[in-house]
Amino acid sequence: MSDLRYDGRVVVVTGAGAGLGKAYALLFASKGAKVVVNDLGGGRHGDGSSSKAADDVVEEIKKNGGTAVADYNSVVDGDKVIKTALDNFGRVDVLINNAGILRDKSFARISDVDWDLVHAVHLKGSFKTTQAAFPIFKKQNYGRIIMTASNSGLYGNFGQANYSAAKMGIVGLSSTVAIEGRKNNIHCNVIVPTAASRLTEDILPPELYAELKPELIAPVVAWLCHENCTETGSMIESGAGWAGKCQIVRADGKLMRQTIADGVSVEKVRDSWDKITDMNSMQHMGSIQEATGALMSSLEGLRSGAKGSSSDDSDVYEYNDKDLILYALGVGASVAKPGDLKFLYENHEDFSALPTFFILPALKSTFSVKMDENLIPGKSISFENILHGEQYLEVYEDIAASSNGSFRSEIQLVDKLDKGSGSVLIYDVLSYNNEGKLLYKNQVVSFAVGAGGWGGPRQSDKLVPCVPKPKRNPDTSVSFKTSVDQAALYRLSGDNNPLHIDPNMAAMAGHKVPILHGLCTLGISVKLVMEAFAGNDLKLFKAVKCRFVKPVVPGETLKVDMWREGNRIHFETSVAESNKIVISGSYVDLNSVIAVVKPVQQAATTSNMSLQSDAIFEMIAQKIKESPEKAKSVNGIFLYNITKDGKIVKTWTMDLKSCKIHEGTPKSGKPNTTLTISDDDFVGLATGKLNPQTAFMKGKLKLTGNVMLAQKLGPLLKAAEAKL
Ligand SMILES: *[C@@H]1O[C@H](CO)[C@@H](O)[C@H](O)[C@H]1NC(C)=O
Ligand SMILES: *[C@@H]1O[C@H](CO)[C@@H](O)[C@H](O)[C@H]1NC(C)=O
Ligand SMILES: *[C@@H]1O[C@H](CO)[C@@H](O)[C@H](O)[C@H]1NC(C)=O
Ligand SMILES: *[C@@H]1O[C@H](CO)[C@@H](O)[C@H](O)[C@H]1NC(C)=O
């Protein structure tokens, strides 16, 4: 790399008698520039002038073979300083506004004289010299200007109110000069030095002072003033051999209005403060156009009443009938059930959304929450160690009926609890329509594993609590056999966590196979509750609260126990195959109950989500588990073909050799006996209402294969009957 030179350039340095200014002058002169060494002289308070300081520097430059001239004018007479350059060297290329004085006093004690003097030297001086040089720069289509600000201005400093104000004034001056000079190749930048000089010598501790050599900053300034440097309109902080660019940044912020008709209340500002001051999303605005442009685009969204500013996009949730149908399929709606058609067919006269669909917008809002060290100070939290612990949904308006729509949701962290082993994060998500009307509220309770022990509260009155189930036996129980593809289908509604589809991800999380979404289990459970107690009338839905206890594996059968207490239906969901509880402490609140179901004995056999016979097979399975010897003694494989309206709708394999009952045909080998029977008649057999011989004689039960072997099934069915 070739040396950077300034041959032929004329550089004016103000306040160049000592410190930074002197270092600049010496460096430029050593690299070929002709230098005007401006200094009023005097002590660090700027009083009493003498020509000695400037003369000494000029002397040193000349001794080293350079070219320089002294100037003793005050920078307030900027034109005179520039004139010195023109008179001696015929031009000026670089202006370094470095002159300064201090008047340290606490704010209350600053006199008008102190104020005016500090502003005169720093701000007005920079203005005057720059204004004098600017037309010359313009004419020659070249100029480099440095203004000197201070970290006292950027960050504030006790006792330097006047100085801070003047120094930040310089930043504003530089920003505009840079814009106005751009088309004439005039660059203007601000240096924010931390330097030892007359100005700081008795303010800083000696060790630090020793490292703040002006010679370590001068090269930064020299580069900024080189013809090949393209930087302009910037602030560069530098000291002790370090340099870095400073920028003013702005948070993403928040638009506090939903429509153009809305005002902004003080309370709204208070409630929005976290978002307004959330610097995780900060951005530097390159220009006033960019800054106002971002604001204007958010207002445009306001006017059209639809999507908000780009910064708020993540909080807008739009859906159409296809989304509703996909969700309904994901939580087990089926055309095999006439009552479900209204969730699956957009032209159905009662086409509607399942209430738990409206948890999805809240979930989407939680995805946009930034996980960082600010969430729980000192604890690292990421999505990998976050579990969905509890969910609450309360609906204020009839939203189920609209087949499409758009909501704006606002998420707020309302409380953080310390549970020792982890932290509980409570998020409220309020969803509004385009007119700003509150439609529903979600509360998402997340558990951050391993992020506890920070001394926070253990309880919160913001938390919508779970409620223990009644102590009596359930009023009804309904089963639903999930499909092995349940998670694969459900995830298409927007929960793409690979844990639910990718075997490798599931294994990493400690699961044998990908697990079902807790919200899918919830959706299925609430759908069954609505069928059992609300006649599937979703206008009756008011709220649901649930706690996720354990995961479900797709293919397992869910058993939902329900208890009615007034308009509240308590429910608990377990896996029928293992009796493991997966959702507990949960309830659905209805506006009114329209279908009081019969006691559990009948309820199980009128199970509706799937076939009635499903529950019976589960019970037989359980019975076999309890006494496998009995089953093994039969030593046969039975295939059940269950019919409805004369058609085979489901097949079950009862493998008594290996004591396994599962849906579908035998996994290995052929069945010894196949039994074909309708769903209703199978219930009849199991409940003892239908005699097997009679059924066979009347052709209700068809047997193929080893007919005699079927007789050995009697005791097993009896066992199921006893259970029912
Ligand atoms: C500016 O950069 C160009 C290209 O790198 C180089 O040829 C030229 O010498 C540089 N000018 C000065 C004054 O260093
Ligand atoms: C101005 O601030 C400086 C900062 O030091 C202080 O010393 C001086 O006393 C103040 N006067 C003004 C004007 O602040
Ligand atoms: C059932 O069939 C298998 C062959 O598929 C046979 O080995 C077994 O003995 C049969 N069981 C009875 C009880 O006949
Ligand atoms: C029973 O169902 C299975 C599977 O649908 C089918 O392959 C088989 O032929 C059926 N058996 C009888 C006897 O209907």
Automatic annotation (TrEMBL):
The keyword Nuclease does not apply. Residues 9-202 form the Ketoreductase domain. InterPro entries: HotDog_dom_sf, KR_dom, MaoC-like_dom, MFE-2_N, NAD(P)-bd_dom_sf, Peroxisomal_Beta-Oxidation, Sc_DH/Rdtase_CS, SCP2_sterol-bd_dom. SMART domains: PKS_KR. Pathway: Lipid metabolism; fatty acid beta-oxidation. Belongs to the short-chain dehydrogenases/reductases (SDR) family. This is Peroxisomal multifunctional enzyme type 2-like isoform X1. The gene is LOC108562871.
